[in-house]
């Protein structure tokens, strides 16, 4: 199906439409061999709360952004190479249903579909694209992935020391290794996690010790290099959680708003292309 759509007029129009919806804030998406496989709204678990995000699945990348005007304007574009993606289904729990994890080396997060059927469709199409990419490239899927951040509202106190209560002054921070919500003193160390950044990132004291022990093991190549940096008790260091979850703001569309079902492109394109050519022939 994807191979047939590569050079289709319908595919080119769809990709151009996605580019126009992101405007100058997004990067160009039209590339030789790229196909828009499907699109729709998913609820992304952000640092503060779940929020609606527009997702576009291509045969080689997954793109998502904040919804400014539904189907007309998006911003905060994020582009994820599918070769780096691993999916993990989540069990239904309370209000969080029909979800799965999107894991990559640099960032991992949970998303939720409106129904179980939509979840199955999204996961099946993404998995198929990943499978095709890896088969064609001969590459192996990544073995390490970034931690999924624990949402702020799930931690009233520091998950490391179990003592510090979070307030306006005692801000929440996230360990970039395990994703736990921790206070400033319990995340005063930094570690270079190569898959996420070339700069030292905030880690909790427990992960810092574990990373150092792992690095010290004989005959075991290090997975990261250490660069400890002290911070003050408030955790000031220029990398607060709020500063780094860049799609956790500009929330102009209610996550509970009713959205259309996702659309995945397939056999309908053949009919559309046939009709377009027939129309052109009849006007000659």
Structure description:
Residues 252-284 have a biased composition (Basic and acidic residues). InterPro entries: PH-like_dom_sf, PH_domain, PH_domain-containing_F, PH_Phafin, SOS1_NGEF_PH, Znf_FYVE, Znf_FYVE-rel, Znf_FYVE_PHD. This is Pleckstrin homology domain-containing family F member 2. One of its GO terms (molecular function) is phosphatidylinositol binding. Keywords: Metal-binding, Zinc, Zinc-finger. With 284 residues, this protein is α+β, with helices and mostly antiparallel strands. The protein has 2 domains: 2-145, Pleckstrin-homology domain (PH domain)/Phosphotyrosine-binding domain (PTB) (PH-domain like, Roll); 152-241, Zinc/RING finger domain, C3HC4 (zinc finger) (Herpes Virus-1, 2-Layer Sandwich), CATH 3.30.40.10. The chain has 6 helices and 13 strands. The chain has helices at 2-5, 9-22, 116-137, 205-216, 241-244, 268-283, and strands at 36-45, 50-58, 61-69, 73-81, 86-89, 99-103, 108-112, 173-174, 181-182, 189-192, 201-203, 225-226, 263-264. A hairpin with a 4-residue loop joins strand 6 (99-103) and strand 7 (108-112). The longest helix is centred in the middle third of the chain and has 22 residues, at 116-137. The protein is globular.
